[in-house]
Each structure stands twice: as structure tokens, then as C-alpha cells.
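Sanity check record (used in CI):
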Amino acid sequence: MAVIGLSCRFPGAADPGAFWRNLVSAADSVGTAPPGRWEERVGPAPAEPRNPIRHGGFIEGIDEFDARFFGIVRREAEYMDPQQRLLLELSWQALEDAAVPAHSLRATRWGVYVGAGADDFRTQYFASGRLDRFGHMGSSRSLLAGRVSHHLGLRGPSEVVDTGQSSSLYALHRALASLRLGECDAALVAGVNLNLLPDVTDQVQLWGGLSADGRCRAFDERADGYVRAEGGGVVVLKPLEAAVRDGDHVYCVVRGSAANNDGGRTALGVPSPDAQREVIEAAHRAAGVTGASVGYVELHGTGTPVGDPVEAEALGEAIGRRRSRATPLLVGSVKSNIGHLESAAGIAGFIKACLVLHHGQLPPTLHHHRSPAELPLADLNLRVVGADQEERLGTDEVVGVSSFGMGGTNVHVVLAGSPARTDPSGRLGSRTPSERPTTDTVWCLSGRTREAARSLARAFLEHSFPTERYTVSDVAWSLAQRGEGEHRVAVVGGSWDEMRDGLLKIVAGHDLAIPADWLHEGGTERAAWVAVAGTYAAHGDLAKVADRLGTGRRKVPGLPTYPFERDTFHGPTPPHPVAPAPEPAPAAPEEARTRPLLDGWQQAADPSERLWLIRSFLERELLDVLGETGDEHLRVDPDSTFKDLGVDSMSLLELQDRLTAATAVELPESALFDHPTVNDLAAHLNTELEALRG
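Expected output for TtmG:
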């Protein structure tokens, strides 16, 4: 199975490129809880621990989300688990990295597999006392996968699995099995974990799993526990044959995987060396490899005094002692850089392994100086990758990734480098740009808003392109596989310098950028490129651009993805003690109720004024139902359908109740579906009032 797309938000890194730069530069992305985090508890502070740990690996902006990009109304987004929001954005970014148009996936047999275990938002939501009908699905763990499948229209399996800390690597194992069984044609595999509540960290500290100073020291004599961390990652899996057929970039290939359980061989929560050895050997059999061909293993590597010796013993028996003493097995742990992402730890290690194979380099593991006596690395023929020398993978060496859950579920996956590929025209994909003809082209960028399109251009301007492997036409082809936003810009050129100059013009406010000399010595061929680019910027139609680009291009990995325009959603928080609410006043009898809309309607003599009153009322009430009243500039398009406005059936029923209360007109439930726009419903309601009131 080929890995053709990646996305992530990990501590210190908003994308895989930044993540890789942090790894090779030995960056430590663990810190203390940011302002506003871990300040609200769901219960009283416990007597223990006396010195609560507040170190962790944190990501920025967990309360931010581009709801309008995904067609989600503000009220619904407010009551969505931020893990759901994060996975929507990461899934979109992974598809863009894979150069797979999201719109092309509707009604396809793509699967979604998510590893997750944290229920912080759900706990926080129920403790707040602010229940809302959107909170039922917004706090459901099953919707972590289901919402992605729903938004993209995917018809394959959609699963959320929880095997503790091995959840996301187990989700990958499930996806591989589903692909091989033919249950889906491709898959999005994800892991997510957000640490919202200090109560959970206090509980883990009491359990005894956390490092006192907030550092994971895998296989080191100072190891005293792990540090909690958060984030999410998504990978796109596809059968290798299909990836080659479609001209996809392949980061690496998954050769095989295996999963098992400790099965009571030790105490609950204590790992079994035999079980870990067995799962590694089973993964090797599935991959058709031996320990001698393994060049590196990404450890579970939490840095706990109990877990590290067990993992080392299993690796030594399964791989290390079966290798030449001259070439000990190299191991490392990403937890030393970003902390332990718990249910998302497996996907973090997996993405690191994908990047290792993609770049051929092994980043150092932090905080490792010397192993303890009970963990004899030399005897086990293991060596932790350090910063003292640069390590690289051998050409044919494979990489293993381990992840173990505290309930005993163990997973190991074997990865290999991307094989020699051919592009869709049948030519060797390994040729360098100097061996391929330079051609003029157009880069098409778009966004939901004009500023989003400009921001994307700015990101491309700042991006470091792999010019030694790809051409400007390859970038153009990759961009032509993306979605098409309402606002579009285009850059025409034939060299990296021309494209950079064009991006500068777009950032400055132009919608179309053309090299200056093209206007005087362009010729008919260049005039045709300008025409295609101008038509795209003005009217869209990426299909015509793709036709003009032709075949023989290569998809470029790691390009900047869509710049989401995020709003802030604070969500429910635990309540502060307040005085008891006064007893509600008895409801007024029906005949004594005041109805401002109805009173105004009866006083209006002009039929057009009556219709205007109803339409204005409908617009205000609809915005209120959707939780959008805080934006004074937001307007409802009275001719857009309720579905296009993001109104679900439950919101329509709430709107129906409000209309009945305001007008005393008993509207059937079907009325809002039979009259699906504000204008249609206003006209219908006006007719009903005239029949009743005259």
C-alpha cells in the first residue's frame, strides 16, 4: 500500500514540512500549558498530586476553525468537539498534498479510519450545563470519522477505534486490512488527541506515568515517565498499483502490519516482552522481510522505567540479536521531540517514518545520553540515533514503527521506500528537471474569499520548492488537481523566477500575473496560455487548464495547502457558582400574548410592506437559530436554499416552532421543505396570514 499524502499539526509544527525541519534540527517542542489552557476544571482540585505537572506538547489555535469553508453554521461549530474540527481541516490538507481533488471523491469507496481516545470535550460539555441539540453529534466520538465521511461524501467504511495509546497505528492496521479485503479503494487514516482538561493530567500523574520535568527520555538512565502532548495527523493510503497508474507521488510503501494483545501474560498496564516480540515477527512475516533488512525502528519509546526495558528486550530478540554486531539496529522516538500524543502517538511515529524514507535521513532522538544497566543496548545490538553523527538509511533497508496500548494491544508496521516509478505517460519518473523540457505553464490558486487566494499566493511565495526534482509545470499540474474556490488568481510563466515575480503581483492585488516580455514577444503559444489563465481567473474551469497542461507531469509533494480563515469558538466551559435562578413567571394565556411581528403585520396596509416584515423576521430568526447573530455584516441570501445555507433538518424544526410562536399560524413540518428559501417561505407565510387575518 502506498502512502500518497500527509498532513499534521503537532507541537511546534503546523504541517509535515515544519515537522521534518524540527526533527532534523533536534528541536524540543515541549513547553508549559499556554495561557487559558488547563485553567478550568470539571471538579474541585484534588488533594493529590500536591505539585501538579503542567508541562506538555501543545498546538496553537485549538479553539479556531474555518466553519464557513466546510459549510458549518456557527452554532453547530460551537458545540463540536475541536478534535472533529481539526480532523476536517487535516483531511482536506492531506488530500491536497496527495493532489486528489476532494470533489472527485463523492460517492466513491474511500474509507476513513481514526484512532482516538480522549473525551475531554464531552466531559466539559456535560459539566457546563449548556446543553444544545448540536452537542449530541458534536460530542460523539464516532463523528470523528463520520463527519469526515459525510463532508466528503465517502461510501467506504468509517471507523473510530480506541486501543489506548496504540489507537492510531491500530486504525492504520484496520485500514490496510480493509484495503486488502476490497472493502474500500483508498483510505484516510488519522489519529487525534487534544488535552483540554487539567483533571486528566492529574489522573495520569497519580497513576505514575508522567515525567517530573516534562521530558520523554527513551532508553535513557534518567527516564522517569512521559510528557502528555496533543495534535493530529492524517495519511492517505492507496494500493501501490493504483498510485502508479494515477501518477501519484509515493512517500513510501507499507509492506505489512500486525496486531496482538498481551493477553494476561503480565499485570494489567504492564507490557509483555513476548507479546511485543511476537507482533514484530508477525509484521515481518506479513511484509516478507527479515530483521536483517530493518534499518531503523521508530519506537513506542515513552521513556518509562517499566516500558522501555520491555520494548528493548523485544526488539533485541526479534531483530537486534539476529543482525551482525557490526550493524546494530538503529532506534529512536519522536516522543522526545513533541511528547506522547497518546491515541495519536502511532500516527505521529508513522508520519515521522514516512518522512525518514522520503528524505533518507534519520533525525536524532533527544534527551538520550546513556542507557541504564537493566537496559543493555549493546548486548541487545541496539543503538539510539543521536545528534553526534548524521545517520542515513541504506537503499534497500525497511523501517518499523511500534505502538503499544496500556490495555495490551500492540501494533507493528513495516515500511519501505518508494519503488522506481513511471509517470502517466510511461516515462521514468526519476528523471531530473534538467532532463525534461522546460515549458510555459499557469499556476491556478483559489479560495473561498479573495484574501484566502492572496494568502495562498503568499505561502507559495515563501515556499522552498524542490527545484532539483520538479519543474514549474509539475507544480501547475499538482494545483490543477485541487478544488476550485469562488475567488481565483493565476500566474503565467515558464521559469521559477517568472513564477516568483508573478506571485509578488498576486500578493500585491492582481488577479492575473503575466511576465512583462510576454506582452511584446509572446507569440501565439504564449497568447494561448494567457487566454487560458485569464478565463480561469475570471470564470474558473480547472478542467480546461488541466487539458492545456497535458500529460507527463509529476505530482509535487509538500506544497502549501489551503489557508483556512479561522474564527474562534470557545465552546462550553464548566460553570462558576452562581445564585439560584428565580422561579419562572407563569406563562401568559394564549389570548394575552404579544406578538410584535403579528402586530406589525396587521398594522401595515401595503402588501409589499407586510411581505418585507415577514422576510426580515425570517432572516433574523434564521441567523439566531444558526448562532450567527454576532456578525453584524452577515446577511442571508433570501434566494439560497436552506440546505445551501447550512441549515439542517433539526434547525428547520426549531425555526418552525419560532414562526408558530410569532404568528399563531400552525405550519406543518413539510412547509419548510416545500418552501426551501427565505423568499419562498415568506410568501407562503404571508398567504397563510392573509387567509387567517385578512
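Confidence is low (pLDDT under 50) at residues 421-430. If this sentence no longer matches the regenerated C-alpha cells, the check is flagged for review.
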